[in-house]
Amino acid sequence: MTELRREVDVAELPTVTFGPRSLMWWGTLGFMTIEGWTTAILVVSYFYLRQNFDAWPPLRTPNPSLLIPTINLLIMLVSLVPARLAADAGKRLDLAGVKRWLAVTSIVSIPIVALRWWELWALNTRWDSNAYGSAAWMIVGFHTSLLLLDVADTLGLTLFYNIREMPAKAFSDTADNSFYWYFTVGIWIPIYLIVYVGPRIV
Amino acid sequence: MHSAFDPHSPQARAVAHLWWSMFAVGGVIWIAVIVAMLIAIARRGDVDFGGRKRGLTIFVAGTGIVLATFLAYDFAVGHDLAKRGAPTLTIGVTGHQWWWEIEYEDLRPSQRMVTANEIHVPTGQLIEFKLRAADVIHSFWAPNLNGKRDLIPGYASSQWFQADTPGVYRGQCAEFCGLQHAKMAFLVVAQTPTDYLAWRTASAAPHTPPADSIAATGLKVFLSSGCPLCHTIAGTDARGTVGPSLSHLASRQTLAAGTLLNTRANLMGWIVNPQALKPGVHMPAIPLKPAELNAVVTYLETLK
Amino acid sequence: MKARAVLAASVILLPACEREDRRLNAVPPNPPQQFVSEVRLQPGPTEMSDTTEGPYDDNAPGTAEGQRLFSQMNCSGCHSNGGGGMGPALMDDQWIYGSRPDQIFASIAEGRPNGMPTWKYRLTTQQIWELVAYVRSLSGLTPKGARPTRSDHMMVKPANSQTPNAKPKNTVKP
Amino acid sequence: MTLPADVIEREALELDRVWSDRQGFWGWLTTTDHKSIGKRYVATAFLMFVAGGIEAALMRAQLARPGNTLIGPDRYNQLFTTHGTTMMFLFAVPIMTAMGLYFVPLMVGARTVAFPRLNAFGYWTYFVGVVFLYVSLFANTAPDVGWFAYPPLSGPEYSPGHRVDVWAQVVTFTEIAALVAAVNIIVTTFKMRAPGMSLNRIPLFVWAQLVVAFMIVFAMPAVATGSTLMLAADRAITMHWFNPAEGGDVLLWQHVFWFFGHPEVYIIFLPAMGFITPIIETFTGRPVFGYTALVLSNITTAFFAFGLWVHHMFATPIPEVGQSLFTAASMVIAIPTGVQIFCWIATLWGSKPRLTVPLLFVLGFLFTFVNGGITGVMLASVAFDKQAHDTFFVVAHLHYVLLGGGVMPLFGALYFWFPKVTGRRLNETLGKWHFWLFLIGVNLTFFPMHILGLNGMPRRVYTYLAETGWGTLNLVATIGAVTIATSVIIFLIDVVMSLRGGELAGDNPWNSSGLEWATASPPPSFTFLHTPFVTGRHPLWDVKDGLPVVTGLSTRERQVLVTTTVDALPDYRHSMPSASIWPVYLALCMGVVFIGSIFSPYFVLGGLGISLLGLLGWGWSGVGERQEERVALPDGAVKVL
Amino acid sequence: MLRAESTCPMSLRLFVIIGLAASTVSCKSEPKTPGVVLSARTGGSPSNSDTTVSDDGQWLRPAKDYASTRFSGLSEINTGNVKNLRVVATFSTGVVRGHEAAPVVAGNTMYIVTPYPNTVYALDLTKPGFPAKWSYDPKPEAASQGVACCDVVNRGAVFDQGRLFFNTLDDHTIALDAATGKPVWDTKLGDINTGETITMAPLVVKGKVLVGNSGGEMGVRGWLKALDERSGKVVWTAYATGPDSSVLIGSDFKPFYASDKGKDLGVSSWPPDMWKIGGGTMWGWIAYDSTLDLIYHGTANPGPWNNDVRPGDNKWTSAIFARHPETGAAVWAYQLTPHDSHDYDGINEQILIDLPINGQTRKVLVRPDRNGYMYVMDRATGEVLSAEPYGVVNSSSGVDLKTGQLHVNADKIPTVGKVVRDICPAAPGTKDWQPSAYSPRTGLIYIPRQNLCMDEEGLSANYIAGTPYVGMNVKMFAGPGGNRGVFQAWNPATGREAWSIKEDLPVWSGALVTAGDVAFYGTMEGWFKAVDARTGTLLWQFKTGSGIIGQPISYRGPDGHQYIAVLSGVGGWAGAILAGVVDPRDSSTAAGFVNAMRDLPSKTTKGGMLYVFSL
Q1: C-alpha span between D16 and C170 (Å, rounded)
Q2: Does E584 touch chain C (CB under 8 A)?
Q3: Strand B185-191 vs strand B118-122: parallel, antiparallel, or unpaired?
């Protein structure tokens, strides 16, 4: 073995960091990129298929309903607040705050998932009616899988915080969980505009 | 009989020229790289580092020039291939699993003609092919005459060429289309305009009822079996469009989309057990008694 | 132990082999010889089975070939895409002449008096059996994994693979 | 200051206790050690190479003479599809990322990858895919529509049964595995480099892996979208992405597939570029010429790779203007590749290289790959491509590129790093036999195919007529295939013999310069006793008075050093999770979801349900014990808890 | 009843029996206005020609008169008292398929022919409850049901010279002695094995029984045959396709438009041999103008529906012919829809009236066609005087009156593998077979019709004799407005709609209009409706047992009072969902019509009943 020579000592360095300094944040960013890109490919395909149609939505397919999706969008936007507050509490190492705001985020996120069911039917078409239906269902459906994943993550974290003592790095995880939630809500805005509002505009 | 190296049309010739020039330049580059590599490992002694950076610049510039030349040449050839006058003949080609339906178009509907797996064209004239797929994607390719073009469901496409010299050129489906992709060939028979017209007239001639009695029995057997449900023989009551048209079958050179030479033995074998010769083909084995088979084949052989 | 594992594995895999097997040169079983009874009533203790399988019922390529024949032999002209029209619907639970594979074989091969032609002189036994499998798939009587799903056509009905099993109810001749 | 030997010994013992896995099967199953996983990843992928090779050999046997009836069309179509799918999805990409997962941490001086459990999950997911495809092959349910699975042939109407579903889901498994690996490699490279390894000191191997990881992130979602979200949905739940009658479009598939498919070639080929540079450096004993040029050409290749996909579709009716653009892009990509070749030859030039087996494979690479590159430029020409497309000419081209540009460097790499991984060297003599037979075999098999293709022989045909005159050249190609098979058998014998009694290698048998050679062969469970400190591009060649290292990482837990992204300054100490069964469990859940989806959508729901359980378990077991922690608050302060 | 073999038996008989005409009606004289029937209207109002005059006490043929007006001169029932109509008799036919027939009344007997099995009943109108005098069962072949495209309907019998003539589904034309119900002759005209059936009501003109075949969806070759009224022997056969000799195009043939001129167009406008299986059947209505001595009939759609396999104009399908009844020789022909791609059969009724056009009165033929246009043609020459759309049409953009050409909208032509959406009108056309009525009093045509559009996809069509030869996937749905049916009053003089009534379901019954200015029609829900012929106001309605697709008639009973009769019994193409054993989950079922009719079973049920109403 080569002879070793001490150059630096890192014993004093921190063990928990937040945001871009932490590994988990980068991992989260990686998956956001993959999922965002997948969504982008679906959206491009949606517009590609649109060229095959004279009308969009196709003839005798009503426009998507806006009521439920808009309500859900508003709930999602509102949910950003507790998510942000939870992240902030985490960054302050405020255990009570983290518990409180995680719980609020969890409670707010459940109706989002529930409304998603009616949101799919608000497309007013079926996935097996035609390519328009397939594309619209698939985009919303794929986002639903992201949504479920993050809601499950939030619920799990909330659960853990309430049944055991969590180490400090969980504060960082809480912040990353909120970070992913911003993404989930963030890409929903263009999806909402493209899939639900778009057919009404053009 | 079937090669891009042996062009018989201006289109295929332009591509062949492009190929040979790319081959020459590419070959020189390949040899140069190998020689450089061999010199590099053979030269013993630490050679100085100077000049490499300039070498890199020159190399990049050189590569760029070669590529730009290729590109320009390719665009020129592409331009030539895309350029075409009004076709003198339009032929519809529909790809089926696994045979080709050929329709000679004509502004007078009654002069249209449908045949299969063998395309006759006059030489010296631009022929346009309207390509359509009946099921999956196929690709129309007669290498001696022009490059390939895909037949894609939901899309209309076309290809064209002008055969220079009379001859028989083989073509084959070039896009994987399922079980019998390998046995989906066709022949392009280029003929002088006179010969072509003669063939065209003969092929449009109505069916004459068979004179000899065995053939007449054959027709009867043909019509009372499953054959007419899939095949057409112009002028008879057989009007099926599922399989290739058998009108003038005897004048074709091959059977089963270029799979077999059109001989009596092959025809018999094909009718009795097509699955042995082309497994998976949609034609079932026709249960005929030997005498019936003999009669049917005798009849089919009269379809010149 | 090892032998048992191998046996278990083959039991799992065998249906798959069966289901995907392209029987290019198959010799299908002979057509049913007996005449088909058009009533369910029979004197004495009854033991009627509706579970018999046609040779291609659990065979996806065979069923697909049946689907092809169904449109090419113009079955679809009368029976549409299973919904009927000039002929009776095939995707519902009503069977005038019985839903068993041998009964359907007989219907196709022999024809039926109210307009169903006889096909036995035109189609081979194998082709008729393939049609039987497809016809049964229309009402969900064949295993789901072997049934065709949507074809590349206008969507006029739910895919066969989505059709719930319509438990046959034999009805009398109209 | 030099570290005292007793401290080193004590620390080594403590670290080994913390990092090593439990004994026995359970330890083997639950390991998150990137080296264990990397090894089994490479071994599984190589097994797939052998399996794909056997399929190829069977196909060559069938094609040896015209009208052969050895294998019927049904089996042949399954074989060539399985061959293509295996080679692309189960061999080439996995083995390249596996090499990265094993070596990137070693080369950047890290103890493990950034996400060890994710790494294990990736491997097991891939493993499920492997098992699935091969079980289906033996159950006569292997896909038979080509590795490209063009609809409508692969659609529900023309591919009844589940064969294509198997394909679509096998692809899904490998997508997940590749994406997980890519994220791991990216974060490992960005955040876990040894202090001092700034961006301009990253080894070219790692650069290549990094670039490829980014390509995976942007390419793989395309085919995942196509296969899982579109094709499988069309087949299973009656969607209409590819049904022209209901507004779908069969060319959409070709776009999404080749948007992945072309970068895929570079995903296979660029890591090989990373193998070549250290081999050339080591055996010429000098730094490679044009480090910056090589890095830049890697990056440009990656960018251009996304702009070429349409050249797979020149025979389709798409606008000619678009085709011209793609022709130009396809030709331009030759420049960065040419630059790389120039740099390597310039490095070799007059260097008195040691002609060991790894270097021989690099030379074989040049001989073969340049040929494939030149035919690649030819195929970029629309006019010529319309003749050559979908013929054996393309088969020849792609095998020259992939065998020459991927497999040959891979063999070189296996010979080169085998001592590091196993502690023993491979036999040089057998290696030379392997090399020469392989080189001859590849050229004998594939060179005739150029001529066959232009003589009109289409791809994917299970037989051909004697009248076509293709018999002789096909026979030559089959003989070549036998030669290749022989060479691979020699290699396998060499591996088995060397594992048993090969020459012991020592830490750095080739006198190489990379950090991976700074630790023992095979590396200990903790990889590096101390994280090295990097002062140049060639750490071991730069060493003057002992390797500079970092101290202060805990020896009581799996702690690694995280550094800053650009300059690689020490930033914080990160605790890695322990071994866990949950990655295996979750991979099996993926199996339930995706394999089950073929049979019923309810499997998806059920599978997701049990996956949630797995996620909870994963999260629970990853929380770790509360201990003294130093938290870096966002405002810069450090709070000790 | 006069039995004289007069050169002009009809008008003479009319004159003698009812003496309605104010002025002498003679065979060769210029037509004059029958003053009693026609109230004087302000200048320029259309008048009916001699061919419309008929015996208002009886109803001898489904269209009432040779001019196909379905106008009854009886006026006892009028707009004021129609609300008092009540059922006076019912009669169950014993069949529950689509009843498209019109009862015919001759003397004191009413004759009904049922759908398959085509039983004929003679009802005695003199006795209470109209008991059956006799019935006749022709026992048609059961297999014929399997080749009848659109239910096993029959559109009625015809009475002439003491005999009743009717067709059976299995291609027989039978003459019965009207008094005894004994068959006089029975001629087999076609072969169900090739897909031929007969559903039309024959017409007797000048001692010839005119009969055409059905089966355009089975790849048959359409024909119209004339049978000798006495012997049943076929006198002439005019095919719709093929060489001029078989279409009976000879030296008399003088079509108005250049596109209809040429030799053997019935062959040269088809790909080789396709004319032999090209459709052009004749299952609709025939009119007769005794002045010009011409019969007018249409030909149905070309086969198969998939138009890819039959490039060309496909003459003489979807056309109108004028022929001499004795020889069948064509005098002119006009192709309404050349190269039809949407099943626009040209078999609808032609109403022969006199119409003021540009200040002069022209003898015209009015044809509300399937393709969506109301053709007004000079019936002597075949010139199209106007062709206005009377429903929603986007499959074409109008008719060029100079060339006679229909401007087809190429975007709406389906080909194999291509789905074309939103084609209006749908395959049954703006109006199908269901005949309209014309009232000389109001000058309006009363059109029962549908308002449907469709999606179409071409499929490859394989010809197998005796099996359907269609090659099209069709999905129909309600047109703009959402109502599937319309009862429309149309002014042929102005080419404008006068009024219309929206009906939820297609109006698949015939129309009747009376001198009491009441128009009658039935709906598929089963409502039998009477509306004011001038305004369209609903005056009375009655719910029958099943949906109505029959043709209402009016006659004077033995008691001297006016009666209205109609058959109720849903079915036909529109009612296929009830008539056949179909499954509405398949929207292509019954060639796509079922998709538009999924709710029919919830609105009515099968039936087969005659209803007779009176004040």
Answers
A1: 75
A2: yes
A3: parallel
Could you say which of B146, B178, B204 is where a domain stops?
A: B204
Report the 10 Å Cβ neighbour count for E400: 12
Say if C149 is an interface residue toward chain A (CB within 8 Å). Answer: no
E217 is catalytic: yes
Please state, in angstroms and rounded to a whole number, the distance separating the CA atoms of residues E336 and E432: 15
Residue E12: pLDDT band (50, 70, 90) is: very low
Name the fold adopted by E9-614.
Answer: Methanol Dehydrogenase; Chain A (2.140.10)
- What is the Cα–Cα distance from D157 to C153, expressed in whole angstroms? 9
- Write the CATH number for C105: 1.10.760.10
User: Could you give the number of structural domains in chain D?
Assistant: 1
**Same domain for B23 and B129?**
yes
- Model pLDDT, residue D542: 82
Chain E contact set for C156 (CB, 8 A) = 473, 475, 586-588, 592, 595
Query: Which amino acid would we find at residue B155?
Result: Y
Determine the straight-line distance between the first and last CA of chain B, rounded to whole angstroms.
24
In Å, what is the CA distance from C60 to each residue of C21, D143, E498?
8, 14, 59
Q: What is the pLDDT of residue D22?
A: 87
pLDDT of E34 over the 50 cut: no
Res. E37 pLDDT band, cuts 50 70 90: very low
- Choose among B219, B12, B211, B249: nearest CA to B115: B249
B260 & B226 share domain = yes
d(Cα A56, Cα A51) in Å, to the nearest integer?
Answer: 9
**Residue D255: closest C-alpha in chain A:** A45
Q: Which domain holds residue D608?
A: 1-265+513-641
Q: Using CA atoms, how far apart are residues D550 and D528, in angstroms rounded to an integer? A: 10
Per-position DSSP letters for E448-467, written without gaps between them: EEE-EEEEEEE------TTS
% of chain D at pLDDT higher than 90 = 79
Cβ atoms within 10 A of the Cβ of C14, count? 12
For residue E54, give the 3-state DSSP assignment. Answer: coil
pLDDT of D54 over the 90 cut:
yes
Distance, CA of E16 to CA of B261 (rounded, Å): 81
Tell me what percent of the residues of chain E surpass a pLDDT of 90. 85
Q: Is the peptide bond before D522 cis (omega within 30 degrees of 0)?
A: yes
Task: Name residue B99's beta-bridge partners.
Answer: B96
E343 is catalytic: yes
Q: How far is E586 from chain A (nearest CA, A)?
A: 13
- What digits encode the pLDDT tens for the residues D81-140? 999 999 999 999 999 999 999 999 999 999 999 999 999 999 999 999 999 999 999 999
Task: Tell me the β-bridge partners of B140.
Answer: B149
Domain that holds residue C102: 55-150
Chains in contact with B, where contact requires at least 3 CB pairs less than 8 Å apart: C, D, E
Q: What is the CATH number of the domain that holds D577?
A: 1.20.210.10
The domain tally of chain C equals 1
Residue C85 inside a domain? The answer is yes
- Please name which of B167, B173, B185 lies closest in space to residue B121, comparing C-alpha atoms: B167
Beta strands in chain C (DSSP E): 94-95, 169-170
Residue pLDDT, tens place only, D612-633: 899 889 988 877 776 778 898 8
The mean predicted confidence, pLDDT, of chain E is 89
Q: How many CA atoms lie within 13 A of E251 on its CB side?
A: 0
Do B11 and B33 lie in one domain? The reply is: yes
What pLDDT is stored for residue C3 in this prediction?
65
Q: One of E48, E213, E301, E306 is an active-site residue; which one?
A: E301
Which of the 8 DSSP states describes residue A194? I
The pLDDT, as a whole number, for residue E50 is: 37
Helices (H), D192-333: 204-224, 232-237, 250-284, 291-305, 320-332
pLDDT at E440 over 60: yes
- Name the pairing type of β-strands E203-205 and E183-188: unpaired
Q: How far is C156 from chain A (nearest CA, A)?
A: 9
